Amino acid sequence: MPVVAINQPAPDFSMPDSRGEMITLSEFKGLEHVILVLNRGFT
After folding, report:
1. Which residues, 6+ apart, have CB-to-CB distance to 11 below 8 Å?
2. Cα gap 35→40, rounded to integer Å
3. Mean pLDDT, range 2-20, rounded to an integer
4. Looking at the predicted structure, is the pLDDT value of residue 27 above 90?
5. What is the DSSP letter of 6?
6. What is the phi/psi pair of residue 16, to 5°?
7. CA 15 to CA 23: how far, in whole Å?
8. What is the DSSP letter of 20?
9. Residue 23 gets which letter from DSSP?
10. In contact, 12 and 26? CB cutoff 8 Å
């Protein structure tokens, strides 16, 4: 897993959204704010 430094751009990545559809971070390029919520879940 890559390490991301503070105040540096995040690497582009893809992951499923809450509906199971794949989204890519670069799809949001140009927006002022992008909030990511990553939940590890409880297993």
Report:
1. 2, 4, 25
2. 16
3. 85
4. yes
5. T
6. -75, 145
7. 6
8. S
9. E
10. yes
- Given a contact cutoff of 8 angstroms between Cβ atoms, the answer to whether 22 and 15 are in contact is yes
Which backbone phi and psi does 29 adopt, to 5 degrees?
A: -60, 135
Residue 33 and residue 28: Cα distance in Å, rounded?
Answer: 9
Residue 14 has pLDDT above 70, yes or no: yes
Please name the residues in contact with 2: beta carbons below 8 A apart, sequence gap of 6 or more: 11
Let me know: does 24 contact 14? Beta carbons within 8 Å. Answer: yes
Sort residue 28 into left (φ over 0), alpha (ψ -120 to 50) or beta: alpha
Identify any residues that bridge with 24 across adjacent strands, giving them in sequence order.
14
